[in-house]
């Protein structure tokens, strides 16, 4: 809006009126009421609009009562950027570096040594086991509240290299529109992410409008105890639940307690969640964000080490999942672009 | 209302008007708007009214935004009857008996043998370990959805012996009023119970208006798998989280992700939850239902094997927790009474 002249009837508004005069009233009405303006017209957008219309049509064959309108969203690569590395991994490595001076013994471990040196490839060479060690060391020893505060402060002070933006600005505008559209239609939105639950809770309410109790994610053990006459919960290094792949339906059953009727993902890590959502009777919806836009964001799928999309893409057509082309289906990628 | 004559201006209404004429208009207004009519006037009721008024008064020193108005409720003994045995334990024993013919090996185990014989004392003799074995055996082998259905059907077909009522009719009317009152004031209600999460979800939405994702409870492990080309989740016998005592703050941190500002319990199993709620800065509220009404319900506290109330009662005064006398503070106990 900053480019508008300071009159209320500005340039853009005048343009909209001129366009409007050339259109039939019903088309104009439909156009101005478009809940997904960043989505280009096409079968993917139409499928989502049709689904929501069907499940909210009272008395219709596909009607679903509001309490059962559960929609689950993956986070990395579905709601925000996950390249060139998961944001939480960047956070973990930053934290390992920051904590290294107080932990001289870390230098004995090659995985930690690589992490401290900023060598992401070397840090990744330890595989899942090495990664879980880093994650545990970087994200334990404090209360869940204090950890969330640490994550929030890190997000506040960190910038991504490509756009020089806060990481929580690298969210997909078309997906924010989907969140708002579903919410306006009585849906309950849950994030179901492989990321750590408290890390996501540090920004999910502010950025996505999703409150803490509607975030499902991977967890580290929490130890209850006392300190100075108060109950104190302490995050332990041990990762006790991985909310990814086959873990996603488990997380959904445990935290949400109801099968979603719509699910949104972008990788094979979401494959089981999309199946769990669409394998039940009744009208269902699943959508995969395909990262095929190297210019505006990134292009990757089968060969990627992050957000690998292979099996879920192959099976999308026969399972009736919507494969969204970021390049073709999205008129806009970021809110600020 | 069944005793009212079929005119709109009935006996009770006429009585209310007569009383009203004798009162100042403001008092009448306050009286007719009483959100807790089953609570007798007194310091406990007043404390709850004052707390809610304070945290919802915009611009006031104790104002809490709606997203942080989290209230947690224990279930057994706080929202519904827990005597002469936890309802879920009665369910478990009924199920052990029903499944015994298909499990002849159970006869080798004295705890199972006692359970099958309906000998609750013998079944309890195995201690926590024996109990967890029974719980695991009775509540595993099916999907979480199927288990919830089994629990719902059991509730449908079972009656308690004292009142010959469905167990989910043995809910405390004054507490239902508290749920409605808090909800009307923008609170988010969570059940935080030592009971199994899916057992409570089987009735919580219908009876308390609390949706599945707002129920925190003890859990059994869930194993993801496939069957006939579909994803199938299976409940395992292993209890992997006990949401009781020190586990309640852990469950709150994990599932809710925000510290409650109000908590309601009835036993030492709620002690840590009440402390966790009231040990943080800002205006807080905690309430304990003291079962001292053998006539209308049950009378028990320090010596009870179920819902033992000892330490929490002792510390209530200095911690500012409201100790509610069921006998004196509640004008009515059950909705149907």
From TrEMBL, chains A, B:
- UniProt entry tagged with the keyword Ubl conjugation: no
Q: Which residues form the signal peptide?
A: 1-30
> Pfam families from the entry?
HAD
Question: Which InterPro entries does this UniProt record tie to the protein?
Answer: HAD-like_sf (IPR036412), HAD_sf (IPR023214)
Report keywords, A-Z.
Signal
Q: Which positions, given as ranges, span the membrane?
A: none
What protein does this entry describe?
Answer: Haloacid dehalogenase
